[in-house]
Every structure is written in C-alpha cells, then in structure tokens.
From TrEMBL:
Residue span, Protein kinase domain: 209-370
Localization terms from the record: Membrane
Gene Ontology biological-process annotations: cellular response to growth factor stimulus
Catalytic activity line of the entry: L-threonyl-[receptor-protein] + ATP = O-phospho-L-threonyl-[receptor-protein] + ADP + H(+)
Signal peptide, first to last residue: 1-23
Keywords in alphabetical order: ATP-binding, Kinase, Magnesium, Manganese, Membrane, Metal-binding, Nucleotide-binding, Receptor, Serine/threonine-protein kinase, Signal, Transferase, Transmembrane, Transmembrane helix
Binding site for ATP: K236
GO cellular component: plasma membrane; receptor complex
Record-given protein name: Serine/threonine-protein kinase receptor
TM spans (from-to): 128-151
Length: 370
C-alpha cells in the first residue's frame, strides 16, 4: 500500500514537470509544424511593407520585450495603431495569437496649398534663358522674313517706267507751271520720236490726275475717266498681281514711232501707292463714244460712216503691222501683231474714226530672232 502511494506521488510530480516544460503553444509562421512553445506570451506582428501589410506570428520569452531570436520589442495595448510596425500579445490559450488581427490606421493625406505648388516650380538658369530668348528670336525671325519679302517685292518691279516716290518739287515745278497747256501740245513738244512723253513728265501728269468715274472693266483691271487740267483722260488701273501685263502694254505703247491717229494715244504709265496696296496706272486719251461694239449697238450709222470707221480701223492695223526701217541715227519701228483685235478693243473718236486700243497681248517682231 505504501509502495502504491509512493508511485502515485512520483507520477503526479512527473506529469507536473512535463506540463511545465510544454509551456504555452503559439502559432509560428517560420517554425516547424507552425508551432512554437512560449514561456511568456504569443505574439502577432503587423508590418507595413512595399506590397501591403505583412503578418508575422512568434513566441515571447519570459523576459519581457524579447523575441525568441533576441529581437527587442514591446506589446501594444490597442488593436489600432498609427505606426508602421504594430504588435499584439496574448496568453489566454494555445494558438491565441492566430485570432489576433491588428489593423493599422490609414495614412493621413495632406493637401498642399497653391503657393507650395508654385514654390516647387523652380526654373534653372538654362530654362529661364530659353523661355525668355525663345519668343524674342521667333519675333525677330518673323520680322526679318517680312522685311525680306517686302524688299524682294519692291525690287522685282521693272525700273524702266517708275521713279522714286519722293520726286522733288524742283523736278515737277517746270511742268506744273506750264499753265493750261494741253496734252496735244505737250506731245508735240516732248515726243518727237513718237514714243510718248519723257518719264518725268509722265510721273508729273499721273500725280495731277483726279479720278472721276469708272467706265469699264477688263480682264486685268478697271478703266476710269479722269481729269487733268480740265481735260478728260482714260486711266486703266492694273492690280499689283498683273504687273507683268501692265509693263508689257506700257512698253509697247512707248515703242518708237508707234504714235498714229488711228492708234490709241498713250500719255503716261505710273505706279500709285494708296497706303494699302500699289496700283499700276496706264493713262491714255479719252474717247467718250466708247468702244466700236458699244457704239454700233446704240447708234445707227450710214454707209459712208461705216466705210469711214472700217477704213480708219484698217489704217491703224496697217500701221501696227508695218515695219519702219531705222537709220544709224534714228531707230525704226518693229512690226507689231495685236493678237486680240475685236470691236471691243477698237474705240470710236469724236470725228467718227476708229483707233486701236488694248495692246496687252500684242507682240513685236524682232528681226534679229526671226
């Protein structure tokens, strides 16, 4: 009986020793069988990583504030913490730490004022130089392009029939002081070669013409009735786009020995700048009867008048086609083909004779290149 009692006491002591050595069982994510024996408490750790929240499960020694591997720590008391590393401990049952789910408070968002955003927009020296010099260079480049285009436009004009716009009063005065001298008298005095007035006289007359009314339109521009010293003149105005047509017609009208009673009398050719664009003027005699086409449509003529009109038109065309041989002293007149002869390009004079006009498409016959 005594032996049985001693055996029971021995077994009880042994069982107590085994129970003490087993300790508190905790869930461990790095231990074999995911189990560790804690001498103090079970631990759950939440760490905020780059990819999200990381949960770690460990055991605590009896020494407060240490992992089994010797890392120092303390247990938090609340289940919600604002730090990036949060720990909860328990010892009420085995594997109690697996039920602990600590949470981290969401990060607080801070709003920046507009002034703080502007403070971040700081430019270096190179950026400031580019920002300041860029627009200046662009404006300078555009100005240079515009000046070059204007320079080319001014200098590509034919210079044979234009004078500088600032003709002095001394050059104009002799012709402006000639009183009421008519165009016919001026033609006789200054145009001995039959090629029209001198360029200076042409420029003076063009500056003194007052446009009165428009009397017609053509493919190259408009025709106006103008006044010069109480005399009517016809002003054919070309746009600057038709400069080549104006130049060719003015050049043909100033052909030596072209002047004839049955060819429209040429007075002057000039360019007028009205501030916004340049007009090219061709000034000729004015005939109030208009073109042969319009005159025949509104007037009934007799047979003698018909013969007179036809004969005068033929005389003018014959003079155009005729080549006049020059001498060593005086140049001759080349043969000229009109190439656009029709009743609308023939004008009726007050004496009921015709004169040929509109030499815009005419060409001269050159013996050297025949």
């Amino acid at each position: 009986m005594l032996k049985l009692l001693i055996f029971i006491i021995f077994i009880t002591i042994l069982l107590n020793l085994i129970g003490v050595s087993d300790g508190l069982k905790c869930y461990c994510d790095i231990c074999p069988n995911n189990t560790c024996i804690a001498n103090a408490k079970c631990l759950t750790v939440v760490v905020k990583g780059k990819t999200g929240l990381v949960h770690r499960y460990r055991c605590l020694d009896k020494i407060e504030g240490q992992f089994l591997n010797g890392e120092h720590l303390t247990c938090n008391t609340a289940k919600k913490q604002k730090t990036d590393n949060y720990r909860l401990c328990c010892d009420d049952s085995d594997f109690c730490n697996r039920a602990l789910v600590p949470t981290l408070a969401p990060p607080t968002t801070t709003t920046q004022s507009p002034d703080e955003d502007l403070d971040k927009l700081e430019f270096g020296t190179a950026e400031l130089v580019v920002l300041i010099s860029g627009p200046v260079v662009l404006v300078s480049l555009l100005f240079m392009i515009g000046f070059f285009a204007y320079y080319q436009y001014q200098h590509r004009r034919p210079s044979g029939y234009m004078l500088p716009p600032d003709t002095s009063n001394a050059d104009v005065a002799p012709f402006a002081q000639q009183g009421t001298e008519g165009l016919r008298e001026m033609m006789i005095e200054y145009s001995g070669s039959g090629s029209g007035l001198p360029l200076l006289v042409q420029r003076t007359i063009a500056r003194q013409i007052h446009l009165c009314e428009i009397i017609g339109k053509g493919r190259y521009g408009e025709v106006w009735r103008g006044k010069w010293r109480a005399e009517n003149v016809a002003v054919k105005i070309f746009s600057s786009r038709e400069e080549s047509s104006w130049f060719r017609e003015a050049e043909l009208y100033q052909t030596v020995m072209l002047r004839h009673e049955n060819i429209l009398g040429f007075i002057a050719a000039d360019n007028k700048d009205n501030g916004t664009w340049t007009q090219l003027w061709l000034i000729t005699d004015y005939h109030e009867n208009g073109s042969l086409f319009d005159y025949l449509n509104r007037t009934q003529i007799s047979i003698p008048q018909m013969i007179q009109l036809a004969l005068s038109a033929a005389n003018g065309l014959c003079h155009l086609h005729m080549e006049i041989i020059g001498t060593e002293v005086h140049a001759g007149k080349p043969a000229i083909a009109h190439r656009d002869l029709k009743s609308k390009n023939i004008l009726v004079k007050n004496n009921l004779t015709c004169c040929i006009a509109d030499l815009g498409l005419a060409v001269r016959h050159d013996i050297a290149t025949d």
